[in-house]
Every structure is written in structure tokens, then in C-alpha cells.
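Researcher: Next sequence.
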Amino acid sequence: MEKISVAAARKPEAIGKQVRLQGWVRTRRDSKGGFSFLELNDGSSLGNVQIVVDGTLPNYESDVKHLTAGSSVTIDGLVKASPAKGQPTEVQATQLTVHGGADAEGYPLQKKHHTFEFLRTIAHLRPRTNTFGAVTRVRNRVSQSIHQFFQEQGFYYIHTPIITASDCEGAGEMFKVTTLDLEKLPKRAEPGQSGTVDYTQDFFNRPAYLTVSGQLQGEIFACSMGKIYTFGPTFRAENSNTSRHLAEFWMVEPEMAFFELTDNMELAERFIKRILGDVLRDCAEDMQFFNDRIDDSHTILATLQGIVDKPFLRVSYTEAVEILEKSGHKFEYPVGWGRDLQAEHERYLTEQKFNCPVILYDYPRTIKPFYMRCNDDGRTVRAMDVLVPKVGEIIGGSQREERLDILEQRMQEQGLVPEHYWWYLDLRRYGTVPHSGFGLGLERILQFITGLGNIRDVIPFPRTPGSADF
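Model: Next structure:
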């Protein structure tokens, strides 16, 4: 008796094998001929395997006839070729064990349409649905592809801290970490600081936060190991309830020594194509489901394949602004040099102007963070954004500023205290090198791949303002 997955049992090569299957019942249908059909799923595939249970089984009346959706079972049986259309195999049960029943009336996942909003309220059960089972398998494949790509390219996987005293983006929207009793906060009264919190009494003797990025710490290792990447959770305390924002999400951030911006662009393009190519090949059934059932235009597969097949176009920010200004298109947000581009502008470039992915580069220095390398024109920095159809920006990155004096100047321009980043500045004092990196939000690319309209539906347990259940 071989224990196999439902996915394996659905393949023609399983025919003739005596197998053991374990999973959850999706449906039960009883026949007048004295036998029942069960649809069984264990999460290994989108489709179920049909189980034929004969009425002669000893526990047929006591157990099988009482099975409901959500019940968990172990089934021993023979895999046979199925006479039914659309399924190559079925399993003739020789033994069935019930592990846990599910009250038919109380089980939240009834055989009907459930909204994504409702399913977020039962995040502990929604992985049992077709959509979220498919999301989970795709998320797993994408995560695997990320590691495989960088490992094959000679990168080292680095774990950067989740708790930090540094603000990488300078946005100030960070979650504070403290062991102080919020009901009894110690105070100190100093000139100009009356009533402020005495953080010398806190765990780290200073304010500490959940990280918004592992980039700065990643640069430390890139400046000694050459090529590294981080892949872990990041946090933003942005009080936003949009379909594109999460308070906790996963980021992959490579950093590469001796990389110019053009090297950065080339790596990012190969990275995106590798992820999408792997998903299209290894998650074909799930991707067909998203294409047919989630995307109203049914163009997910064509869009992803087009990105894999087409070269990414390189366009400067200045050129892009000129194109947008001359387009004659009515945008909700105004276009002008020095303004950050919005998703509608980015989508116009990828979907209408060029009909392919676009990498924009050399953005105005006034709208980008302090760590991006300044160009000789004094107006722009060596930033890049990778834009794709239907979404807009999917990757953001830059060549990092390796010149100490200019980096200190940029920090002061943005209201940062260079002394607070003494260790980051040391990288420029001792053996500085040109280096680059970028960031890709895992949930952002998953939303793009699956076509799901809300980013909360591509992460197992979404963290948003007012919501931290499960």
C-alpha cells in the first residue's frame, strides 16, 4: 500500500496501484445502486480525485452515508481508469476511516459562491477553497523560484534584522517596538523635551522599530560577499485600507557589489522572467483556473507569456514624461517633470504606448531616497522601476551612492542625521565600491500573477489597519 497525494492519484501512471489517500471531502453523492461518489482533495492540486465507495463496505451506512463537506478521511483503494469524461482516474475504495466530521449546517464553506470579503473573515478555512489553494501553490512555486534563481547565480542568502533603529526609506511610517509599560511610561524633563519618553529605559536603550527594508544591512554583506539577497517579512505602519497595501508583507532584496545600473536592470529582467516562466510551467492547472475564473478578460496567461518572451524596453524618466505629456490621454493625476508617476501613467506606457514591459530609469533626485546614486547632471539619480502591464511598477531599485561626501549631503537634504547611520557611512570610508540592488514585493507579484484584485487575498493572514486576527 503506497501513500500518495491526490495530485499523484489523478495521473494516468497511477492506474493499477493500491494506494492510501488522506484528505478532506469536498462533496458526497449517493447513487441508487448502493454506492457513493466522494470528491477528495488534500491541497496538492486544484482538481479532486473521485472515490467510488461500494455499499458493501462494513462502515458504509454508519460512516460513509454521513460524510459531509469538510470531513477528513483516510481511504485505501485501487486506482482505476475513470469512465467519466474529464478525469483520467478514480479510486475504488476498499477501506475508509473517518478522522473528523464537519457539521453540515455549521460548516462555513457551503457549496455556493463566497465573496473574498467573507473568506477573509475565515482565514483559517479559506485555504480549502479552490482559489486559495491555488494561491498557496503558486506562492510556494514563486518562493522556490526566487531562491533557485539567486542560488544558481552565486548569491548568498542573508537574514537581515526585523528589529532595527534605522529607517531605510525615511518615510517615518514604522511600527515601534518597545518593552515599556505603555500605562506607566517613564518621563524625563529636559529643556525643550518636557514629557518625552525616556528610551534609555527601554530594551535597546533607544527607539526601535520593525524594519521597512533589509536593504541597508544587505549592503553590508554585499560589500564583503559580492552578491547577496534577503527574503523576509517587512512592515509599514501606513494607515491605508487600499487593495494594494499591507502592514506586513514579504520582500526579496538582492544587493550586488561592482554592479552598475545597467547590470541591475539586466538582472531584474532575468529575475522576473524566471519567476513567471516557472509558474507557467509548474502551476499550469492553477494558472488556467486564474485565467478562466478570476480574470474577467481571460488574458492572464497571454500577458505573462508575453513578458517571458519579450525584451524589456529601457526608457528614461524624462523621456517617459515627454511621451505622457504629448499623448493626449486624459489622466486623473497630472504629469510633469519632477512628479512621481502614478499607476495610470505606468500602465499607459506598458499597455498602450509600448505594449511590453518597460524599465524607467534616472528619476529626479527630489522624489527618491538618500541612498540612490546622483548623476552628474545634479538633477537625477540612478534609480530604476520595472513596469509591467496591468499593474505598473513591480520592482524598484537603484545604483547606490558610494561617494561619502555626496551621501552625507543627501542625508542632510532629507532631514536625516548622518551620525545615526555611522556604520552605513563606514562602508564608503573603507573600500567603497559601485553597487546596486532592487526590491520585489512577493505579494505584489503574486497579485499580478493571479489577477486577484486585492492584495489581502494573496497572503495567508493579512495584516491591515484594525485587523490582526488569526
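Model: The chain has a mean pLDDT of 94. The first strand starts at residue 2 and ends at 3.
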